[in-house]
């Protein structure tokens, strides 16, 4: 097959969940098919990142994504006028449509178009009209995106922000319901998200990683004790669920931890932390916000505990899978661990209220034997359930279905005729 693969972020380096997802799906598909990657790029994306992807893609075509306050404001006005989600209007870029048209002209005919995440749905549906017969459409939705905004609205304290987020959630739910039905195959990363959108042609394939042979973290050894005891949070910090989860931990949980572990240290690593989080960290004790770290090896090796204190979001937290893979014990909220195949107390600890989260943090900082047991169980789980070389064979089945009859395809052909 010849597949045009559309991504909202350049899927390399592997420093975020969406990149990990797209990268290993690309690897799986490129082993059997001719894959043409068309991706947005950012200022931090380098030429060697593109060259890496060319090792297994038949072609890599990038379109710069320019974000600014002015563009976001224009997107808000457009979305309100047309009653569509802001993030869809924000990511509508004419240069991307032209690049896809150029790829079709140079490489057509195309057998399938693969859209990665909701932002690329509009481009996949547009690409379907570029040739006859239409290419099959496959969507890797990742999650039910409207649920992310619904939870952000529930957590918002400002009434105007709560109303705007609820409006975005409502428009996204309508958009997902209508547009996803036009795809021949749709894939989610969790069963929870698949169930939120009742689609007969939907599949579930989790985000996977490549298991490491050796643990990166010293606490994987039962007798190890890291000094000073370090708690680690890693996440893309311009994504509101991550930033708000980190802020909640600093504000509500960390002071309770320091009362019992005054030598403890908190490190928050992630791209583009908001000013509010930086100010909160500056006012706290023993808290460091590093910003983006391209190689987490040293931070992980020095840390005693990995936390995922999220109260909003959707899909699955791939950083927990990463932490298991690294060999570092994990503490998460219920939402933070949502969608993962775990047993609480065996693979990680779960706590939701601030006092319970603080108590679990102290427990793991003080009990290296428990930490080691969680590390060992987590690494076994990654090898069993989240190894892309084992699990992503399921994508072959998705594409086999995309080449056969599907309700969405039949409905489209009926409407066209």
Shape, please? globular
What spatial order of strands do you see in the largest sheet? Answer: 3-2-1-4-5-6-7
Count of individual beta strands: 13
Please identify the oligomeric state. single chain
Number of alpha- plus pi-helical segments: 18
Low-confidence segments, given as residue ranges, are: 405-417
Strand content: 15-25%
Proportion of helical residues: 40-55%
The structure class reads alpha/beta
Mean pLDDT across all amino acids: 90
**Most strands sheet:** 7 strands, parallel
- Distance N to C terminus: 26 Å
Radius of gyration: 22 Å
Can you describe this structure?
This protein has 417 residues and is of the alpha/beta class. The protein is 48% helix and 15% strand. The strands form 2 sheets. A 7-stranded parallel β-sheet has the order 3-2-1-4-5-6-7, sandwiched between helices. Strands 10-9-8-11-12-13 form a 6-stranded parallel β-sheet, sandwiched between helices. Helix 10 (240-260) packs parallel to helix 11 and helix 13 packs across helix 15.
